[in-house]
Amino acid sequence: MLYTPANSSSDKFAESMIAITYMKYEELLQWEIQLLKKRGEDYKNFKLQKAILFIDQIEKQFPGIKSKIKTFYTSTPLTYRDYTGTLEGSIYGIMKDCNNP
């Protein structure tokens, strides 16, 4: 998923972009029990490598966009889990059943 949120400084160009892709929770098991912001350099490097791969894929769809990126931030299912309390960091929230509200 990729979108450019509206901003007040331009009605023609985006200042930022949000891009989300799937990640297997199993890839994060080695950091699962570590506290938020205490996962270490190996976790930061893992996120950086994933970000580079993702940006390379975005570049294939939007040639030249990579050169326009000033900075980026990353999150993983662990981030979602820790901030929203969703099982395994589901980006869609907790599974619901319309028959059992």
Question: Explain this structure to me?
Answer:
Helices cover 30% and strands 4% of the residues. The chain has two helices and two strands. Strands 1-2 form a two-stranded antiparallel sheet. It is globular and about 45 Å long.
Per-chain topology:
Elements: E1 2-3, E2 18-19, H1 40-61, H2 77-84
Antiparallel strand pairs: 1-2
Offer a quick outline of the entry.
The protein has 101 residues and is mainly alpha-helical. The chain contains 2 helices and 2 strands; from the N terminus they run E-E-H-H.
The poorly predicted ranges are none
**What is the alpha-carbon Rg in Å?**
16 Å
Count the helices. How many?
Answer: 2
Strand proportion, as a percent range, falls in under 5%
Total number of β-strand segments?
2
Helix content: 25-40%
Elements, N to C (H/E): EEHH
Principal-axis shape equals: globular
What's the rounded overall pLDDT mean?
Answer: 89
Give the strand order, joined by hyphens, for the main sheet: 1-2
Distance between the termini: 28 Å
Structural class category: mainly alpha
Summarize the biggest pleated sheet.
Answer: 2 strands, antiparallel
